[in-house]
Amino acid sequence: MAYGDGPADNDLKAGWDRFCDRLRDAGDKAFKQANPPAPIHRADAYRFLTQNLGQAFDLALETKDAAYPQIHYFTTPTMKLGGDVSDFTYRQAWISGEHSYRLTGKRGTARWLNLTVQGPRPQTIPGTDWPSLHEPFGDIPERNILGHQLQTDADGNFELFIGGGERPGNWLPTTPGSRKLFIREAFDTWGETPTTLTIERIGMDTPRPLPGPDRMIEAMDWAGDFVTGLMRDWPEHSWLTSRGVCDPDQRNQFPADKSANTADDTRRGRMAAHMIWRLQPDEALIVEMDWHDGFWIFGMGGVFVGSMDFLHRPTSYTPARTVVDADKVVRLVIAHDDPGVHNWLDSQGFSDGNLTYRNLMSQNPATFRTRLVKRADVLAHLPADTAMVSPEERATMLLERYRAIKLRFGI
User: Fold this and answer.
1) What InterPro entries does UniProt report for this protein, alphabetically (predicted)?
2) Is residue 15 within a helix (H) or strand (E), and if so which, with residue range?
3) Residue 48 and residue 83: Cα distance in Å, rounded?
4) Cis amide bond preceding 235, omega within 30
5) Residues 239, 316, 135, 120: what is their CA dihedral angle, to the nearest 10 degrees?
6) Is the Cβ–Cβ distance between 370 and 288 less than 8 Å?
7) Do 70 and 204 fall into the same domain?
8) What is the mean pLDDT of the chain?
9) 372: CATH
10) How far is Cα 116 from Cα 119, in angstroms, rounded to an integer?
């Protein structure tokens, strides 16, 4: 048997050819104006694409049946999407308002957990003419429940019902447009454990049907939209649609006196700000924030705003893992090599990147200051009592990070 002998051959091949053409177009975006021409940046752009190529059909086909839901990690240490933060985990399950579901799990010790039912994905961001962010983003939160609101037994076990008639206890309603369960978990200390989760449709009593040609072609088209969208939208989405970024040319500083307390931030249950940085080989950047309460996270990202290598390198800091100076100021140092400062953020050899700030448990405003200095002079610009670490202590810190991240993802 050869091509053309099957009645669906032409349609399947045409669908695959369209996907390959779109993948080729997505690859061309590695050379966009926003991405520096240095070889390491060009390679990283292709890595951003190939990491997501690996999950394109998991999202488009393997998990995309709301009658047979599955929970899927869409960011991991080896798979990043724009805007992901090092100390978060991100999971989703495709659902439908036509069905009801039972989510069971065991609450871990992560400091923050948010489970959200997401509604329809509009063509444009509400209130603007800007297109919605690429799939699987862009849909509108409908209802959510936080980790501390879950009712659990003494061992942390729980069940959460989604959709259907109202129930006492853990229940999230859906609407006819509900399409996704979006799960974010954030970690503070290295010893915190993840929440285990599994989902099933209530009344699921038959095997999932196998995909036929029409379903396969639909998945090819969805995956083509996904890979072209992620290369098209990042990093421009950050400064076109986010109030946390004022101007892509405003490098090495957060927006002036960013209070990170907009109405949109409030709906999302967090405050956020974002900085685009650029360092020459002989430079370092000192980032300062006056201490405030709450659960905040600083995380390093690349040009395409995907998180940097957080498994092996110091790319993020939280209250539990940050040394605060005696004057109650948080000081972080972005540098190409280890300056011996405890709060070092590793640029990983990139000349350009992003630093994101999230605050999840407080509405206190954050005020940021930055200073671009020569790398050789960085210690002269820091307080005399700045916490320092030896190479041996840094190695211990990195091993502790490595083990904790692996625990979060079960790898």
Assistant:
1) DUF1214 (IPR010621)
2) helix 9-28
3) 12
4) yes
5) -90
6) yes
7) yes
8) 93
9) 2.60.40
10) 10
